[in-house]
């Protein structure tokens, strides 16, 4: 049976001499494993669409719950992202997270849109990488059932004057209530970083990147989003390690 869908390649693995096995995040059916026969062969019509982080209109052939890529027409190749090693490594981190948190054969259009919009923000809009990374991490966690409780202090209920995010419990608390907020590390926030986190976790997905932070507020937003994600998922990511290595090398005098 043939079917059409739009999909983004999250992973490509070479198999045999001319074929690839793709992990594709589709708009209609979530994450699929797709065989791209002949995709490595020179002149193949599948060459472009079977590359990492390429978004395409795909015609898939399904037989006994297995999918193969029959035809594809590229929609977006994200050339600006792919031509910059830092942006490409960050987008690869996004892809690794999306692969982990997407379900097989279950539509997750919100996650697909988040990945696409984040790469657009990096490449076309030239938003700061630190901002895009933090927005992606926090929004993805919220979409995947790990949304932190940020309305008020989880202990006393008041708006915190000195806000903290307990990254293990996933709750906001004020400095005075730290001991009652539960086990785990608490990341310090301020007015700007807390407002950003609320906007990303609860706000309009079409306006995720329509704000700007700088200085200490940006650093606290970025640190809290990353540590919250890593703590909740209880694991690290090789793509994140590589991206951080690139950034640290760039920042060295």
UniProtKB/TrEMBL annotation:
Keywords: DNA damage, DNA recombination, DNA repair. Residues 1-78 form the DNA replication/recombination mediator RecO N-terminal domain. One of its GO terms (cellular component) is bacterial nucleoid. It comes from the Bacteria. GO terms for biological process: DNA recombination; double-strand break repair. Involved in DNA repair and RecF pathway recombination. Belongs to the RecO family. This is DNA repair protein RecO. The lineage of its organism: Bacteria, Bacillati, Bacillota, Clostridia, Eubacteriales. The gene is recO.
